[in-house]
Amino acid sequence: MTLLILITLLWAASFSLIGVYLAGQVDGYLVVFIRMVLALITVLPLFRWRHLSPQNGQLPQLAKLAVIGAVQIGAMYLFLYHAFLYLSVAEVLLFTIFTPLYITLIDELILNRKHLPLLWWIAAAVSVCGAAIIRYQPLSDDFITGFFLIQAANACFAAGQVAYKRLPTGKTLEQSQQFAAFFFGASVVAGLGVLLFGDLTKMPTTNLQWGILLWLGIVASGLGYLGWNLSGKRVNTGQLATMNNALIPAGILVNVVFWEQSFDYTRLSIGALIIILAVWLAGRVNKLKPAH
């Protein structure tokens, strides 16, 4: 849980950085591709090339990791970045509150196919309520298109998290040595997006934009997703689901402190406490053993 909390704090500024400095200024497909390639370069030194040998039987495992990466962050970011064209940062945050429910639903009905404790469902629903209290506000006219884009992103992110959690990947060191395949899959999807739909006239042009992309690619993605997925194997599904909404109060605090945005601190406090309660509820169920 400690690493999940630290990564949540690491990701807290991402929504505002994307919404303020990149959305509408740099082509979304290019942003996703650059971010994924930087993340791949970051973890590539950890990769053990012997995994590519057909004799050791690791190729199917790497292929599965590549597919998970393609869905969890490749496709997810393509949906997310385009949602910023229709929604404000606040609305994007609002519509991400359903991710815990997607995680719980996908784990129970699709991937794990095992009945999950009722308390995990309750914890996920409580987490959504807490996030809604924090982030609800009147919606813009384009909210329907943006809403469905965000739900597609939520579903991709949730499916990838659960798939990685259920995939036998070995110990932590072995997972780190294979993780480049995850970002390779994401980079392929992002590259296809650029080839099919990208606007090369909207390249990053300022040092600030390139600096943000370096942060998002190397730190938030390369180190962040490695740590998040490794940690996801060490907590139960309910805790993983509810932690997805912990990003919302953290993101708002960053927005208030650094961008001097006004906010209802009463709603923020109440919602954050409810999300903390949801994480605590999920932890009351005996943790699932990590997959090996």
What does this structure look like?
The protein has 292 residues and is mainly alpha-helical. The chain has 14 helices and no strands. It is globular, with a radius of gyration of 18 Å.
What's the SSE blueprint?
Blueprint: H1 2-11, H2 14-22, H3 28-43, H4 59-83, H5 89-95, H6 99-111, H7 118-135, H8 143-166, H9 172-178, H10 180-197, H11 207-232, H12 237-243, H13 247-259, H14 265-283
Helix pairs in contact: 1-11, 2-11, 3-4, 3-10, 3-11, 4-8, 4-10, 5-7, 6-7, 6-8, 6-12, 7-12, 7-14, 12-14
Question: What is shown here, in short?
Answer:
By secondary structure, the chain is mostly helical.
Characterize the quaternary organization of these chains.
single chain
Name the shape in a single word.
Answer: globular
Low confidence ranges: 286-292
Number of H/I helices = 14
Total number of strands: 0
Helix content: over 70%
Mean pLDDT: 83
Please state the structural category.
mainly alpha
Distance between the termini: 19 Å
Spell out the key features of this protein.
single chain, 292 residues, mainly alpha, 0% strand, globular, disordered C terminus
